[in-house]
Amino acid sequence: PASDRSTRIRTFGPFRLDPDSRSLTREGEPVSLTSGEFELLQVFLEHPRQLLHRDRLLARLKGYDRDPFDRSVDVRVTRLRKKIEPEPSEPVYIRTVWGKGYLFDPEGAAGS
Predict the structure, then answer these.
(1) 93 pLDDT exceeds 60?
(2) Are 5 and 20 in contact (CB under 8 A)?
(3) Would you kindly state where each structural domain of the chain is located, as residue ranges?
(4) Domain 2-105 sits in CATH 3.40.50.80
(5) Which one, of 94, 3, 5, 89, lies nearest residue 47 by Cα?
(6) Which of 24, 37, 51, 106 has its CA 20 to 30 A from that of 18?
(7) Residue 15: closest CA among 87, 85, 88, 111
(8) Side-chain-facing half-sphere of 77: CA atoms under 13 Å
(9) Cα–Cα distances in Å, from 59 out to 48, 67, 72, 81, 100?
(10) Maximum distance among all alpha carbons in the chain?
C-alpha cells in the first residue's frame, strides 16, 4: 500500500530518501548515489544519533568481519559527505568520532 511506502521514506535537512525507488532528492532534485553510498546513508538513517563503529558499518555493508586495513567505509563516507554536506570538510550530518566510528545527525548538528 502507498501508506506503507510513505512511512519508509526518510527525510533529513532538505533531503528525502526513498528506499523503494532507491533514490535521494534534495529539495525535489535528484542526487546521484552509488549503491554503496545509498546503503550507507540508509544505515545512518536507520540509526540516527547513534555511534556506529566502523566494524559494524563494514559488517552491515559487506557482510563480513573487517580487515583492519579495510578503508572502504571511510571512502564511502567521504564520497557521501561530498554529496550531502553543505561543507564536506566541516560535516554536520555525518560526524567522525575519532577512534570509534561515525555518528549521523539528521538535524545537521541542530543547524550549526
Answers:
(1) yes
(2) yes
(3) 2-105
(4) no
(5) 94
(6) 51
(7) 85
(8) 23
(9) 18, 11, 11, 21, 15
(10) 44
Per-residue model confidence (pLDDT) at position 14: 96
pLDDT on residue 112: 46
Q: Is the model's pLDDT at 78 over the cut of 90?
A: yes
Query: What whole-number distance in Å separates Cα of residue 36 and Cα of residue 44?
Result: 12
What is d(CA 88, CA 67) in angstroms, rounded to the nearest whole number? 26
Burial class (CB in 10 A: 0-12, 13-18, 19+), 30: exposed
Q: Over the stretch 2-52, which tens digit does the pLDDT of each residue have?
A: 555 556 899 999 999 999 999 999 999 999 999 999 999 999 999 999 999
Global pTM value = 0.84
Query: At a CB cut-off of 8 Å and minimum separation 6, what does 41 contact?
Result: 17, 24, 33, 80, 84
Contact at 8 Å (CB) between 36 and 88? Answer: no
Binned at pLDDT 50, 70 and 90, residue 1 comes out as low
Question: Which grid coordinates belong to 59?
Answer: 559488517
